[in-house]
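Colleagues,

For the teaching module next term, I've prepared a clean inverse folding example: a structure given as tokens, and then the sequence designed for it. I'd like students to try predicting residues themselves before seeing the answer, so please don't circulate the second half yet.
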């Protein structure tokens, strides 16, 4: 599903990524771990096409994203990649249902189709009765599950998550972590998760360790 070859990235004189080669299979739940400053988030942003590498290639579902024009890349990102961040980033003026529907609207879906898909996801996550509530009326765990539903609304092949449970208590962390596997089993998505959570890393299909902008192959667990 994801092939990363020879990725380098610098910010000024600081080289953040130093030649990353990485292959992730369809349907895998993979965690990326390592100390702060190792380059984990930068790698995730490049895989997600939110940033461009200085060199190297990223191929997602058979498409070399580096060869796409700006407009084509934006369309590809919206259709094929979903994002979940540490802080839910829901729009406060919209309900949970409307927040989930927004990416579908951007993707050209009609209101009926977008609403049906959004409600399907909210129901799967046990939030059907919260669909009409705005973010300030939801708990932290509920907001993060709405954010996950929003990431899934366009049927993306890949979900990229950056510290998705970092702001949650232990109960909500456990529920969110289980949700990733339930979603993989139901919808077949590939999950790539940057995390400092040792328990989450221990239950993923594979744990990738990064140190100083490189993969620590000795400590990477298959």
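(Answer key — instructors only)
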């Amino acid at each position: 599903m994801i092939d990363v070859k020879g990725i380098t990235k610098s910010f000024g004189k600081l080289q953040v990524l130093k030649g990353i080669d990485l292959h992730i299979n369809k349907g895998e739940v993979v965690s990326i771990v390592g100390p702060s400053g190792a380059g984990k988030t930068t790698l995730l942003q490049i895989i997600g096409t939110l940033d461009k590498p200085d060199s190297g290639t990223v191929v997602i579902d058979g498409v070399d994203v580096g060869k796409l024009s700006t407009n084509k890349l934006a369309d590809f990102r919206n259709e094929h990649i979903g994002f979940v961040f540490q802080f839910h980033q829901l729009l406060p003026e919209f309900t949970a249902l409307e927040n989930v529907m927004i990416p579908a609207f951007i993707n050209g879906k009609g209101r009926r189709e977008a609403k049906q898909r959004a409600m399907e996801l909210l129901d799967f996550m046990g939030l059907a009765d919260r669909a009409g509530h705005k973010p300030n009326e939801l708990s932290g765990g509920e907001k993060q599950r709405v954010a996950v539903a929003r990431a899934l609304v366009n049927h993306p092949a890949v979900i990229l998550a950056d510290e998705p449970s970092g702001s949650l208590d232990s109960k909500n962390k456990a529920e969110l972590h289980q949700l990733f596997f339930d979603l993989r089993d139901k919808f077949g998505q590939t999950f790539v998760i940057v995390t400092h959570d040792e328990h989450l890393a221990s239950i993923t299909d594979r744990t990738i360790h990064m140190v100083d902008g490189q993969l620590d192959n000795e400590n990477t667990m298959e």
